[in-house]
Amino acid sequence: MKSLILTLTTVAFVAGSAAAGDVTGKISLKGTPAPEKEIPMDPACGKLHDGKKVTTRFYVTDGAGGLGDCVVYLEGAKGGAATKEVVIDQKGCEYLPYISSAQVNQPIRVLNSDPVLHNVHPTPTVDGNKEQNKAQLPKGAPLDFTFAKAEKFLRFKCDVHPWMFSYVSIFDHGFHAVSAKDGSYKITGVPDGKYKLVVEHRKGGKVEKEIEVKGGAKADFTIEAK
Ligand SMILES: [Cu+2]
Fold it and tell me: What residues of the chain score a pLDDT lower than 70?
């Protein structure tokens, strides 16, 4: 009896790319912002909250010093891959998330999980970004939007519900993130080098730091409540 032995040769390829790493850190809120304002929803939308009061989301925090909804980015960076799409849902007549970030020409997909009609109305202010206004039926098909130019806090609104806003910051590179409720953020795959790292909060303003990435970097920030 003959046995056949197959020898498999594994060839390992070592990528020749330059070192890269994640830029991480935490954003803290200093001071106490003004109390959020109650949103007077109409009956159809109010019903979706079981009578629970809905407020503005100017300062989203974890109650332990962390500040969410900060846009964090490497100013003037080049390259970086976009994720497939950025998804914004409409739920309980609110945009979720309130703050997000995307890359130029990356699809921003808006869903309607509500049993009510919305109308999605991005209102860019930078030349080359197109204003659009599209009705979306209750639980209707998703709508995709793209923008050709970088723009901070590009506003989406709904003309049916005047309290509905969402802000998407568009970058011409892939090195951006939005902080979670606990203030933590992560920008992945940043090539080694020196950068200006910027944190922007829609109400609290902007802070920045020069950083050096060597297989990653860590930088914490504080935003003062206005
Ligand atoms: Cu709406």
Answer: 1-17
> Is 210 a member of any domain?
yes
Q: How far is the CA of 121 from the centre of ligand 1 (A)?
A: 10
SS3 track for 100-129: EEEECCCCEEEEECCCCCEEEEECCCCCCC
Question: Does residue 4 sit within a domain?
Answer: no
Query: In the Cβ-directed half-sphere of 21, how many Cα atoms lie within 13 Å?
Result: 14
Residue 136 CA, ligand 1 centroid: distance in Å: 9
- The parent domain of residue 145 ranges over 81-172
Question: Of 68, 134, 130, 133, nearest to 104 (Cα)?
Answer: 130
Establish if 162 belongs to a structural domain. Answer: yes
Q: How far is the CA of 140 from the centre of ligand 1 (A)?
A: 12
Cα 166 to ligand 1 centroid, rounded to whole Å: 11
Tell whether 143 and 93 lie within a shared domain. Answer: yes
- Distance (angstroms) between ligand 1 centre and the Cα of 55 equals 16
85 C-alpha to ligand 1 centroid (Å): 22
Give the domain CATH number at 166.
2.60.40.420
pLDDT (tens digit per residue) in 9-51: 333 344 445 799 999 999 999 999 999 999 999 999 999 999 8
